[in-house]
Design goal:
heterodimer, A: 234 residues, alpha/beta, 6-stranded mixed beta sheet, 3-stranded antiparallel beta sheet, 9 strands, globular, B: mainly alpha, MetI-like fold
Chain lengths: 234, 245
């Protein structure tokens, strides 16, 4: 069953066509990785999928309906933790401000999710005092606590020092094991190999190629994909 | 004859009731004008970012008028000309204090708008994005995320504005608000002790500004979002060009 789906989505900023009639879907519990050069529309596609951007044309559906706020979780390249809140307050924020949970209950749940990303002891720290990897794990917890039906990751490890990438990937791999539906924009091809069921190549606002992970890496059909993989794998 | 500085007269001025009252009045006038100028400035700041052209134009006109004309002129206009335009201002309730508070608030709001606008703009757009991704409304994001972060940015320039405002209250002496300058004038007019009178007034201003600096420092720490604030790390205060209003 198709779970999260974008149908014929297009999006322009002024004269710049960022997405051209893109149709993309993920099944429930499936993990898809999107790769492609910068400016190919990967981030915009993710933003359309969680309705951070309203597409100019086409539709986005989660199950039968449009996703409601918080139903599709989003993790950003630059973490975007609320700088004026501690790690715990960041995770509580959605529960208190959107779900209207009482503070005590929100705190209990937030602590549980902080523990899940291995940061139970960092609740009182401000983002500024955490490493990039820790910040990204808090950001993941902040999205997860809303019990999203799907999670989107926009280059979640690109802003991290090399030695911090692993801790974030570990958290993401644990999510995969739990059966979370995920769409991940990343250049971590090893991660893609490891967890993705299929890989999508985007270029110039279009999906160039999509194939099951093994096939995608062993025998890419498009010249554009081959060139890009050669560049990334270097 | 060269008059020597009389410590006696200085103390007499410093401890006199009119000086004390003048200082209280200056503080009251500053606080009222400051408090009014922040919400008005906030609305103006939001208006500047409006998608409606008429709103943006209105804000521009307001800022232009209040920044391009001398504060003294605005003060005199409100006190002398406004009652000629509108009858309501001719009635007893429109005291010199209210006139001064009105003029200074409107004037200050024009400057506050700029400060608040740059404060809001200085917050990383990723913060709003993250809030929207969680499903927070724009209003909530502004309230819980953007404004608290902008506050830290606007405290130092607002501190400067407070000081400017405090000093501007001396202008209100021309519309017979009996603030510190009026107190000094009344004092030296009887005994020609200019030095003592002005020194006493200066002391009041110095004390008021010193108290403000302590409060500002605390606020800056309160709105520094790291545990470092417990260690009292000094925050960088950007130097602002002196503006002669």
């Amino acid at each position: 069953m198709t779970f999260l789906r974008a149908t014929g989505v297009s999006k322009s900023y002024g004269d710049l066509e960022v997405l051209r009639d893109v149709t993309f879907e993920v099944e429930s519990g499936e993990v898809k990785v999107i790769i492609g050069p910068s400016g190919s529309g990967k981030s915009t596609l993710l933003r359309c999928l969680c309705l951070l951007e309203q597409p100019d044309g086409g539709t986005v559906a989660l199950g039968e309906a449009e996703p409601r706020p918080g139903e599709v979780g989003m993790v950003f390249q630059r973490f975007n933790l609320f700088q004026n809140m501690t790690a715990l307050e960041n995770v509580m924020c959605g529960l208190v401000e959107v779900r209207r949970l009482p503070k005590r209950e929100a705190r209990r749940e937030a602590l549980e999710f902080l523990a899940r990303v291995g940061l139970a002891d960092k609740g009182s720290q401000y983002p500024e005092e955490l490493s990039g990897g820790q910040q990204q794990r808090v950001a993941i917890a902040r999205a997860l606590v809303m019990r999203p039906k799907a999670m989107l990751f926009d280059e979640p490890t690109s802003a991290l020092d090399v030695e911090l990438v692993r801790e974030v990937l570990d958290v993401m791999e644990a999510l995969v094991k739990d059966g979370m539906t995920m769409v991940v924009v990343t250049h971590e091809l090893r991660f893609a190999h490891h967890v993705a069921s299929s890989v999508v190549m985007m270029d110039e606002g279009r999906i160039v190629e999509e194939a099951p992970t093994e096939t995608f890496f062993s025998s890419p059909t498009h010249e554009r994909t081959r060139r890009f993989l050669a560049l990334v794998e270097q | 004859m060269l008059a020597a500085f009389s410590t006696h007269l200085f103390w007499q001025a410093l401890s006199s009731r009119p000086f004390w009252h003048g200082a209280i009045l200056a503080i009251e006038l500053t606080l009222v004008s400051f408090a009014v100028s922040i919400p008005v400035g906030f609305v103006l700041a939001l208006g500047r970012a409006s998608t409606r052209r008429t709103v943006r134009g209105g804000v521009f006109l307001y800022t232009w008028i209040f920044r391009a004309t001398p504060t003294l002129l605005q003060l005199l206009f409100v006190w002398d000309a406004l009652p000629q335009i509108w009858g309501v201002f001719r009635e007893g309730w429109f005291t010199p204090f209210l006139a001064a508070a009105l003029a200074l608030s409107l004037n200050e709001a024009a400057y506050m708008a700029e400060i608040i606008r740059s404060g809001l703009l200085s917050v990383d757009p990723g913060q709003e994005l993250a809030g929207r991704a969680l499903g927070m409304s724009r209003r909530r994001i502004l309230q819980r995320v953007i404004v608290p972060q902008a506050i830290r940015i606007v405290i130092p320039p607002m501190g400067n504005e407070f000081i400017t405002l405090l000093k501007l209250t001396s202008l209100a002496s021309v519309i017979s608000v009996t603030e510190l300058l009026t107190a000094s004038q009344n004092f030296y007019s009887t005994n020609f002790s200019y030095e003592e009178a002005f020194s006493a007034a200066a002391i009041y201003y110095l004390v008021i500004v010193s108290v403000l600096m302590v409060i500002q420092n605390r606020l800056e720490r309160r709105y520094t979002f790291s545990s470092a604030r417990r260690r009292g790390a000094p925050a960088a205060t950007p130097a602002l060009a002196h503006d002669a209003r």
